[in-house]
């Protein structure tokens, strides 16, 4: 058996998220269906770096699987893409050793959150960015982001439904870039809790609008209570951008 | 009665084109449905600058309608957008005199056709540009475009199903811009025949790949035969960009 590591981009719009769920169309379901076809009916399970929710996109999700087929690594994208729907595109594949694991071997992840501020909604962006037609104070958001960088207990910044006990994570950097009425947040960290990037983005946007100050964000972290932080920003602005190994 | 001129953007992906067709979801149907609601059940017919096909987009389609309501012109976008689905967004509205006509008063139109050349398909562009992963000679396409500019009989460059008798049109300019593996064609002319921009774009791309020379394009015009020109490029790359009055 050979382990194959794949990088995949997907438009999350038509999917009920990444992970298989009974009766739902998911990204994992489509990829496993394609692999089953390639393996002549044999079930092939894939393991990804993590889940993404309904409507969330990926530019660089990573998954691995084991195969008995002797397809050269550089052929896997063509072979899989020919069986996949156009919303899912394999961009890279390589052979890895059997101890590589998409989830446990990951050392860092990058997520991006995209916002556009134009007064009128844009029909071409509705599935790919959050419409936020308000005056935003970028400097105050950057000041708030400074408090979030580093190792913290992010209990206030994850869904109350989060099942993991240890909510301490490290954010290495938060970039906030503005260009032509678009704002892009980029977060690099050692791991992210359930809904964490959406809550961070929703909170920073509310800082930008003046509902909270940068100092308030420090208090939110200390509160360790989901009710203390801002809103969960909508899924369509979120992209799993890159997984680092 | 007051005539209102509106500019509208739409993502053509989910529609069976602009024009009302029995049993189909179209852009005109959605706008007339919204207007009927605003006019308390009264039918309001809209007239656009022209049709767009299934999957074709608009950044600046123009239509007009007559209303007895005394809504200020600057309020119409908000009023209509609140009733329209998110794929259709009114970007401008103004009062015009009763002799203004979206179709007959138009003096020029601009269409754009978008192509991306990346080797792998891009799931985020699949509805918004043509995937054309080939080496393209931009200079040869520009040379070919020179033959197309001006007043010509465009019989070779419209669908054989075109019903209008006079196939003479004037193209004022053809721009071909390349940036980051994307090519954008922009056409400004006094009018365009059925499928004309898609056939022009398909033919120019085949010139870019070397199937035809620029000189061949001159011959295609002279042939006055749809069979002489290149392929009809796919609808998702096409945008009705602007209508000039």
TrEMBL record, chains A, B:
Keywords carried by this UniProt record: Isomerase, tRNA processing
HAMAP family reported in the protein's UniProt record: TruA (MF_00171)
Superkingdom in the source lineage: Bacteria
Gene3D superfamilies (UniProt xref): Pseudouridine synthase I, catalytic domain, C-terminal subdomain, Pseudouridine synthase I, catalytic domain, N-terminal subdomain
Domain Pseudouridine synthase I TruA alpha/beta: 8-104, 144-245
SUPFAM superfamilies in UniProt: Pseudouridine synthase
Catalysed reactions, as listed in the record: uridine(38/39/40) in tRNA = pseudouridine(38/39/40) in tRNA
Active-site residue numbers: 53
Alphabetical GO biological process terms: tRNA pseudouridine synthesis
Binding site for substrate: 111
UniProt-recorded Gene Ontology molecular function terms: RNA binding; tRNA pseudouridine(38-40) synthase activity
Protein name: tRNA pseudouridine synthase A
Family membership: Belongs to the tRNA pseudouridine synthase TruA family.
């Amino acid at each position: 058996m050979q382990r194959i590591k794949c990088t995949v981009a997907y438009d999350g719009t038509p999917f009920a998220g990444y992970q298989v769920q009974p009766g739902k169309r998911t990204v994992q379901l489509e990829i496993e269906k394609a692999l089953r076809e390639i393996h002549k009916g044999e079930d092939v399970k894939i393991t990804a770096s993590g889940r993404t929710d309904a409507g969330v996109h990926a530019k660089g999700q990573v998954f691995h699987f084991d195969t008995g087929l002797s397809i050269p690594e550089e052929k896997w994208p063509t072979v899989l893409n020919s069986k996949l729907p156009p919303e899912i595109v394999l961009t890279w594949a390589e052979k890895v050793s059997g101890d590589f694991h998409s989830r446990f071997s990951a050392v860092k992840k990058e997520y991006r959150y995209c916002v556009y501020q134009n007064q009128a909604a844009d029909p071409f962006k509705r599935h790919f960015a959050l419409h936020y037609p308000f005056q935003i104070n970028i400097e105050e958001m950057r000041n708030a982001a400074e408090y979030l960088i580093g190792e913290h207990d992010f209990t206030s910044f994850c869904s109350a439904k989060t099942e993991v006990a240890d909510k301490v994570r490290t954010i290495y950097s938060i970039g906030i870039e503005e260009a032509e009425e678009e704002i892009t947040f980029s977060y690099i960290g050692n791991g992210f809790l359930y809904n964490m990037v959406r809550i961070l983005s929703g909170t920073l946007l509310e800082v930008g609008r003046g509902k909270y100050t940068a100092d308030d964000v420090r208090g939110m972290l200390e509160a360790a209570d989901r009710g203390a932080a801002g809103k969960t920003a909508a899924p369509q602005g979120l992209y799993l951008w890159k997984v680092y190994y």
